[in-house]
């Protein structure tokens, strides 16, 4: 059965971005992909997203769900049947929604791990934290809205940062079996991001010296999207080589 196209409203999407040593980033993705470089750096990060009205596009809005979700991702490029392509490789997806955990990878692309989320927000301040139910991953992020985009070594201004992440709308995520990458593309005519200042970030993945030796992953910037209507278009899965599939399945 072909997965349905999904619709939702991005009530909040916080992108926390790191500049990463390309050699380290390359070890964290399938051999069919390579890091997409900006000023000599790979770009990786955490996407913390709350979706409202999440549903198959054929259903009315009132039938949709409201879900908190997270993804650890790396900007990538690859050569496929259509030539050179860009997007993101998603090493892990987590969700506070039991439906996402049960249906992801089955009824629609993207396998999710179960997690508990803690979100507090005001007009200016946003706190998003979560811990997976298996206690292996935890993240805590605090940001504050700001009028200026500044401090990034990856992007010269907000427009450049916005264009880069909009071009990475196709995401391919790891699966437990390791034989394929699930594909999903974000589509919207209302793309808009705003700058935020980072107050604090903790991540058991990016703070792990075994994954990222000291100096190989540096916090760069954060961007916020709010109240953006989107659709999620399933993409044909990418298949991975046998050696990588075996290694990935063992690691998970």
Automatic annotation (TrEMBL):
Matches recorded under InterPro entries: DUF2071 (IPR018644)
One Pfam family matching this protein: DUF2071
Protein name listed in UniProt: DUF2071 domain-containing protein
Organism, scientific name: Nocardia suismassiliense
Lineage of source species: Bacteria, Bacillati, Actinomycetota, Actinomycetes, Mycobacteriales
